[in-house]
Amino acid sequence: MVTPEQKARIEANRKAALQRLQARGIVSSSNSNNSSVKGSSTVQNNTNVESRRKQDDMAALQAAAPPDSLRDAVSSREDLKSKKRPLDHIRPSIRKQDYIEYDFATMKNLNGGYINPEDKTGEGSEDYFDELGSKKQKSLDDWKREQKERRMLYENAPPPEHISKAPKCIECNINIEMDPVLHDVFKLQVCKQCSKDHPEKYALLTKTECKEDYFLTDPELNDLELFHRLEKPNPHSGTFARMQLFVRCQIEEFAFKKWGGEEGLDQEWQKREEGKTSRREKKYQKKIAEMRLKTRAQEYTNRLREQKYGTKHVHDFSIVVTTGKDDDGTPFIRKKCVDCGLETEETDI
To answer: Secondary structure of 42-73 in the HEC alphabet?
Structure first.
């Protein structure tokens, strides 16, 4: 509540402000009186309109909504009004990232980059509730169970109903249990025993061996339509490119088609070996020519020296200079030949 003294003080302050504005010529006396009257009348009109509007809204809500939901409707209307206030849309003029480089309040612990909480395997993803989950969600028991099921699938799979119709090994025509690597990756129906007994056909070759032994190029080996491959981590370092393995029979088949059979491959090998030998011989002859040039230059220098100083030169060390002493106090002696200018440094032991 405003006391009479406060009202009088407010009125006096208002009159003093009007007098200052009139003294500056900003507001005239008639405008100030009219504005005060108009302001009071507009305030009263606005308050009356607002009160009438509230009464109409309350009546409409009472007529339309049941008595139990009336309080909820009023509270929701007040919440909407509070959300639409203009002050809520005002943003600060200075952005936080302009003066804060690292906001530790928003940082998350990624455990050295190995575990990302925002990964697709999170709780909100589709594959979070799989039977075994992803690799990051598996427990040790789940992993063991998965490995056991994999062995049962590839190694201990039950035979078909008609064993005569089961696919057999193309080498022995007896076994129906295929090597999982050769069967799944390289699409070859070969059992494990036959793959061990015939390494000349089913051994795995690296990419370097394919290029050196069968003279295949990188574009050919990188073509997924030509060769099947098995990728493994590089044994030299985990940061190197992954190792690619190829089966020997497929590589030989393509190489024989490319070079015209085994004889053509041998001829290509012989041709490349001769090329290597010729290149080594050219390199050797080049080095010999450079050495001869150096020898001739040294011979020419020796001949000039002989013409100037004779065939046998005897140094004349007539100039002896003491340059200093070592840690033991022994003096250093420097000698210089008067004829050829050769300098030597000696010390007495």
So the answer is: HHHHHHHHHHHHHHHHHHHHHHHCCHHHHHHH
**Is the model's pTM score more than 0.85?**
no
pLDDT in tens, 24-59: 777 766 655 555 544 444 445 445 555 666 666 666
Lowest mean pLDDT among 96-105, 111-120, 312-321: 111-120
| Structure tokens belonging to residue 238 | 């985990």
Question: Comparing C-alpha atoms, which of 235, 237, 182 is closest to residue 206?
Answer: 235
- Report the C-alpha gap between 301 and 313 in whole angstroms: 14
